[in-house]
Design goal:
This protein has 245 residues and is mainly alpha-helical. Helices cover 52% and strands 10% of the residues. Among the domains are: 77 residues, Winged helix-like DNA-binding domain superfamily/Winged helix DNA-binding domain (Arc Repressor Mutant, subunit A, Orthogonal Bundle); 92 residues, Arc Repressor Mutant, subunit A, CATH 1.10.10. A hairpin with a 2-residue loop joins strand 1 and strand 2.
Length: 245
Amino acid sequence: MQDNYQQNVKSEEVSRKAQREDLVQNDEIKIIPKSQDIPPDDGQAEPIEEVEDTGPEAVTGTPEEIFEGEISTESVLEAILFAADEPVTPAKLAEIIGAGSVKQIREHIEDLNQKYEHMGCAFRIEAIAGGYQTLTLPQFNPWLRKLIRVRSETKMSPAALETLAIIAYKQPILRVDVEAIRGVGAGEMIRQLIDKGLVKIVGRAEELGRPLLYGTTKKFLEIFGLNSLKDLPSAEDIKQHNNSQ
């Protein structure tokens, strides 16, 4: 029985083989050589297309095109006028923005002023000497005069600044030590700095006569934008700044 089974299996294999040969001969099955299925590897990678580096100078187009709508032409115009310390002509504004005409610049300014009025802002874009400048409204002048007065009160001469710098870096310090560093009398300069609220008496020295010690005030930190005396620039920082000028 086992011999009969093996003969039947062998007969079926022979029959299937004959059928495959007939199909190949009749072109019903096309066998693709492996060498054509996968291209040979010649050891060379496909070249990568190089992208030209145009640099920042090549950036062109309107603000909407550059920032995909995130920054409008009016926003750029607004920023320029805020930063400008003198009137800027419409032609210059159009040149800086790189888009639009003088007429369009004027239209943008009108739209901005309408927005400022609607929002209750304290400033407007005004026409000054053939150009445009961002200015505060006249009704705020009383408060602005106080600001200008404060600035004038804190305006100092080179001698006063030099004296203040010595006190700031050497505090607590005696008047005679300030004079020794400057090489001239410092009594009047120290008095002026005290009147301006930048220097104060912080104590007395433990020596003959108990002379006064001087230091800086909180107002000194506020005017010079310091959080504490630790934020004073070091000698190395000052040297690097002077060398960069």
